[in-house]
Amino acid sequence: MYNSKITGLGYYVPDHVVTNDDLSKVMDTNDEWIQERTGIKERRHVNTEEETTTSMGVKAAKKAIERAGIDKNDIDFIVFATLSPDYYFPGPGVLVQRDLGIDTVGAIDVRNQCSGFVYGISVADQFIKTGMYKNVLVIGSEVHSRGLDFTTRGRGVSVIFGDGAGAAVLSREEDTSKGILSTHLHSEGQHAEELSLIAPGMGKRWVSDILKDNDPNDESYYPHMNGQFVFKNAVVRFSEVIMEGLQTNQLQPTDIDMLIPHQANLRISQFVQKKFGLTDDQVFNNIMKYGNTTAASIPIALTEAWEQGKIKKGDLVVLAAFGSGFTWGSAIIRW
Ligand code: UT7
Description:
Bound molecules: oxa(dethia)-CoA
Number of domains: 2
Structural class: alpha/beta
Low-confidence stretches: none
Oligomer: single chain
C-alpha cells in the first residue's frame, strides 16, 4: 500500500470582476445584504466565448502539472469534478485529455457539486493507494454565470456563485505517515431537490416538449436553493465530517494547522472555526474575492494558501465540503 500526496497545485479565474454594486444594477440587491449574509464582495464571471469549464480547468491543470515537476504524459488518470460541464455529455474529463494532448489515459467525471473536489481527491487517492496509478490529475472547475437568473427572482442564488477552476496533481508517496491520511464521504439524497438544477434532465420531460414549450418563465432551468435549510445542514455536516476524519487518525482539533473549508458562505466557515477553536490563521477563506465556485472552491483556496506560504511541510491540512445532493466529505492530509 502507498499513500498519495499533493505534489502540484494551480488555479485559474477569469479576469472579469463582478462586484456587488454591479449586481445591484440588474436586480434588487445591495452590497450590504450580500456582505452581511455571505461575506462576498466580488466574484469572477467568464466574459468570452472561449472560456469554458474545460478551458479554465486546463489552465489550472497546466500550472499544477508544472509545479508537480512532471511531464503531462506522466499523468496516468484524470478526475474532473463539475456541475457545469461544457456539454451534457461527454463530460469534461475527456476534453481535458484531448486539450492537454495527453496519451489515451482514463478520464472520469465526478458529479458531486460542492463536495466534488473532495470526492475527486478520494477517487484519485484510492487508485494511487492500490498501486494502480502513480500520478492522478484532479480538477474542479465551474462556469456558473451562464446559468444563473440575474433578475430579482434569482437573487437568493445568483449573488453567491462565481466562476473559476483549481487543480491538483496527486502522486505516489511511499511513506504512509505522509500525504492523504484518509478521506470521508457521505450523501443524503433525501434532500436532493433542496439545492438542485432540475432541467435539462431526462427525469420527467421529453426534450422535444421542452423545446416546444420554450417557456421563458420556466424556473427549472435555474438553480434552486432552500438557503436556510442548506445552511443549517451545512454547519452540522461540516463539523461532523471534520471530526470523523480527526478521530479516524487519532487526532484532536488542536492538531489542525490549516482548515480549507469549501467556500459556501463566510458565516459557515466562521461557525466551523469557532466550533473547533481555530484562529483566523488556521482557516483559509477567499469567498470575499471569488464567491462560491462549487467544485473549484477548495482547490483555488488550497492553491492560494500554499502560494502565500500558509501551508508548510509537516502541517496537518484538513479539507471539508458540503453541498448539493446533499453530499459532504473531508480529507485529512499530512503535508
Ligand atoms: O455551496 C453549497 C452549499 N450552500 C450553502 O451552504 C448556502 C447556505 N445558505 C446560505 O448561505 C444563506 O441561506 C443565503 C446566503 C443563501 C441566504 O441568506 P439568509 O440569511 O438565509 O436569507 P433568506 O434566504 O432567509 O432571505 C432573507 C431575505 C428575504 O426577504 P424577506 O422574505 O425576509 O422579505 C429574501 O427575499 O432576504 C431576501 N433576499 C435578498 N435581499 C437582497 C434574498 N436574496 C437577496 C439578495 N439581496 N441577493
